[in-house]
Amino acid sequence: MSLNVLFSARPALWPVYEPLLREGLCHAGQEVTIDTDLPPETVDYVVYAPNGGLMDFTPFSRLKAVLSLWAGVEKIASNSSLTVPLARMVDHGLTQGMTEWVVGHVLRYHLGLDRHILTQDGVWAPDPPPLATQRKVCVLGLGALGQAVAEALAALNFNVTGWSRTPKAIDGVTCLSGPAGLRTALSQAEIVVLLLPDTAATENTLNTQTLDLLPAGAKVINPGRGSLVDDDALLLALNSGRVGHATLDVFRVEPLPLDHPYWAHPKVTVTPHIASETRPETAAQVVCENIRRCEAGQPLLHVVDRTLGY
Ligand code: NDP
Predict the structure, then answer these.
(1) For a substitution probing ligand 1, which of 94, 196, 270 has the most ligand atoms within 8 Å of its CB?
(2) Is there a single domain that holds both residue 148 and residue 191?
(3) What is the pTM of this model?
(4) Same domain assignment for residues 59 and 120
(5) Which of 136, 197, 222, 259 could form a disulfide with 310 if both were Cys (CB 3.0 to 4.6 A apart)?
């Protein structure tokens, strides 16, 4: 039977994804209609991103699954009109991009790159950085992205601790979980990377109490979500020196408002949500594989647990 797939994402992405999805689904032997506008009652699958504007899934009476192009699903996970499985995006390209971005910013802090790049002051005072083995990095969140980041940092010989909701075992990474694990992880973290999802349980993971656990001058890198950080507490910690510098890619309000104190803060680097993005070539393969699986009666990959929100 022919399948109908609705593409509901940023319109500019349609010309990029259309040939990739068409090719991937034909390759899987599916007869398929893919479009940005189909009668809801005829749609089998929705390829979804929040900026496509679709909010009400009620009229989609024969829908089998929603396949998110985004890794973060906080904007759809609690949508009560959605009653079919929701799969999030786990994409090699996205993972590689995040790994490169985080490793780059960790190396910036580890090597103290700003000092000589931004300040040529005529002072000849050799003060070489320590080796990565002596640098303690903590990765909060050990999912598709956090685990890849932790492994890449461990491969560079950083002293890596990771923290997740459930216990994990990752070669070269000290894995912790639970509230006590978070306290242990933060109390030794010279550089903290946040790669948690935006859920009720992760809101303000970095707050006044947890920031206070950090060694003085610790660096914070947040490519996860803005809600993970209590902004007022972080600003206080930056001003007191508890946190030495922060690189923030994600914010509670995006674009970050022009009058937000982060923009002008001398100890904050703002990047405009560019840590990584879904790469159409690899992401389309993930979407097609999930449609193939669903049609074959096999379990979907990367299904969101709607009770946990990720
Ligand atoms: P995953 O769902 O694969 O991993 C989430 C991780 O967070 C898991 O290890 C999970 O633990 C852990 N976690 C969840 N809740 C808690 C909790 N309450 N306490 C402790 N640990 C918790 O997500 P991804 O790795 O794919 O992505 C992470 C986030 O990165 C996304 O949700 C998104 O917000 C962000 N992102 C940002 C991008 C950017 O450009 N800035 C691009 C893409 C994603 P467990 O393993 O035990 O389940």
Answers:
(1) 196
(2) yes
(3) 0.97
(4) no
(5) 197
